[in-house]
Amino acid sequence: MNNLTKMKILKPANEVFEAFVDPSKIGGFWFSSSSERWEQGKIITVRYDEYNAQLELKILEIIENEKIVFQWGEDREGHIVTITLDKINQMSTIIEIIEEGFEENDDDFVNRILENKEGWVYMLTCLKGYLEFGVYQLRSALVLD
Known about the structure:
The chain is an alpha+beta fold. The protein has one domain (about 1-140): 2-Layer Sandwich (Alpha-D-Glucose-1,6-Bisphosphate, Chain A, domain 4), CATH 3.30.530.
């Protein structure tokens, strides 16, 4: 089972791509920090300072300005996330995120997939605000129970 989320960003694909892979930019919309530039085969440590949380991502595939695939979850054995950038024109990109690995037999399946969708929509909204309008304060506004 997978979860699909899409959003149009009014920026070129290369700017959207760099927002993810460049550790100096990712803090503007998603994680507080990233240990290094995202490259295929690397294990990247990311932090959410607001929640005192840290996790590792295993970068499985990178196609510059087009695609990022990583694995995350417990011991990086969990879900696979595919971020695809579809260049509409010089100033517009559709970003698509698919997260795979949900267990349909899990008693809490519906809640997990809804919370996951909420998280991706929130992250993409923060990305849109960051890239299109220079707003970076949205990232840390999510309240987790």
